[in-house]
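To illustrate the input format used throughout this study, we show a single complete record. The first block contains the structure-token representation of the backbone; no residue identities are included at this stage. The design step must infer an amino acid for every position from geometry alone.
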């Protein structure tokens, strides 16, 4: 599996419309006038087209760009950073914050923010903003790509025809129509999954800690407890955020309560699923197939050689072994965390990131995920 960094670097050549010298200019409302004292802004995990986009948005600001995640940026380049923007590979730990004494804002270019230690940021008065709504349809569409690939054996079928093998044996699929879909986490993405599922004439049930009865009435689905949902769903799709409350939400005990032969889709976060529990459920035939855009330890697999010397090496090696075991299963599809990755979604991410940083610089931060910090900060410029 190639890493996110490699993928994003490669994107410069993959993306004809944006990379061929034609990154869309931010609208004038997105262009941020330099403040009298211009804070250093560091962008990590950036592709070429994003660099051009941010350069146009922040004319006159001292900007630094790195294709790498923040951990790999030289200390000297972080010493005076005031605003930092990265993707999910840029893990923000207390140790890393020590290297950025002037840091006042983090603009993560993602919806999820489980890679940022919010407690440490809040304690240091650092505002953290995310991009909450760039890709709800994008991720929902990809969820159905995984679902249909599994129910129609698409990967095996294409692999056969590439080898001039046109046999049908073993490729019999299953309709989505009439099946029950269990959506775990009916937030922005989950609701789009429900909308699309209703278009396929699926029955939909959902579990969420914050149910919205009106939404259920309008979209035609029913809220259930997680146990009820797992017992009746033919397909379970996970859309909760990564958090201590959702860590290993799907563990061996929960898999044991699932309807036999169900399909699991995870586009949320790898840690929501206990990989060892999933391997057990696949062995037992409880889970017939799994489509995983995210896997616990996905960030480790590209750095395998460093694992032996890393802290908690045993635990990390175990995660990588589980990931390898999942990758080898014929009834498991693993994709390299690409559910978000469409041209339209990336453009929305860039636009919102410019708006988030601009709002912070002018003293009115937006999309703040650690609002407790707001009482303790003053504008950076
Ligand atoms: N694979 C990708 O490329 C990709 C892209 C974007 C987002 N994501 C992941 O998808 C997640 C969901 O995104 P979203 O925009 O729908 O977020 P959201 O905040 O709009 O929705 C999350 C929903 O989960 C519910 N929830 C939270 N904790 C719960 C719990 N313990 N049990 C049950 N429900 C719970 C919330 O009430 C909310 O309705 C993100 O946090 C991110 O981790 C993945």
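Output of the design step:
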């Amino acid at each position: 599996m190639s890493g996110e960094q490699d993928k994003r670097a490669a994107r410069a050549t993959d993306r004809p419309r944006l990379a061929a010298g034609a990154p869309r200019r931010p609208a004038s409302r997105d262009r941020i006038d330099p403040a009298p004292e211009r804070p250093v802004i560091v962008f990590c995990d950036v592709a070429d087209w994003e660099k051009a986009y941010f350069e146009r948005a922040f004319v006159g600001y001292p900007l630094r760009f790195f294709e790498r995640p923040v951990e790999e940026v030289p200390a000297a380049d972080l010493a005076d950073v005031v605003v930092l923007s990265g993707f999910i590979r840029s893990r923000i730990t207390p140790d890393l914050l020590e290297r950025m004494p002037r840091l006042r804002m983090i603009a993560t270019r993602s919806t999820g923010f489980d890679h940022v230690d919010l407690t440490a940021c809040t304690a240091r008065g650092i505002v953290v903003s995310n991009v909450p709504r760039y890709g709800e349809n994008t991720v929902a569409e990809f969820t159905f790509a995984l679902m249909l690939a599994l129910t129609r054996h698409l990967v095996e079928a294409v692999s056969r025809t590439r080898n001039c093998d046109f046999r049908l044996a073993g490729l019999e699929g299953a309709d989505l129509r009439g099946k029950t879909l269990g959506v775990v986490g009916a937030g922005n993405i989950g609701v789009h999954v429900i909308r699309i599922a209703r278009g396929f004439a699926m029955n939909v049930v959902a579990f969420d800690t914050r149910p919205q009865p009106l939404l259920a009435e309008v979209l035609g689905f029913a809220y259930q407890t997680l146990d009820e949902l797992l017992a009746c769903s033919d397909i379970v799709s996970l859309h909760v955020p990564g958090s201590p409350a959702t860590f290993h939400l799907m563990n061996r005990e929960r898999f044991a309560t699932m309807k036999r032969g169900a399909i699991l889709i995870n586009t949320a976060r790898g840690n929501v699923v206990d990989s060892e529990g999933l391997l057990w459920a696949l062995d037992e035939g409880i889970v017939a197939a799994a489509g995983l855009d995210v896997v616990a330890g996905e960030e480790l697999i590209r750095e395998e050689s460093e694992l032996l010397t890393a802290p908690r090496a045993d635990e990390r090696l175990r995660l990588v072994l589980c990931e390898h075991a999942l990758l080898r299963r014929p009834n498991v599809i693993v994709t390299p965390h690409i559910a978000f990755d469409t041209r339209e979604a990336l453009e929305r991410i860039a636009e919102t990131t410019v708006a988030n940083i601009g709002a912070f610089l002018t003293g009115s931060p937006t999309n703040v995920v650690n609002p407790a910090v707001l009482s303790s900060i003053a504008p950076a410029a």
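Structural context for interpreting the output: The chain has two domains: 3-134+342-376, 136-334. The CA atoms of residues 27 and 358 lie 13 Å apart.
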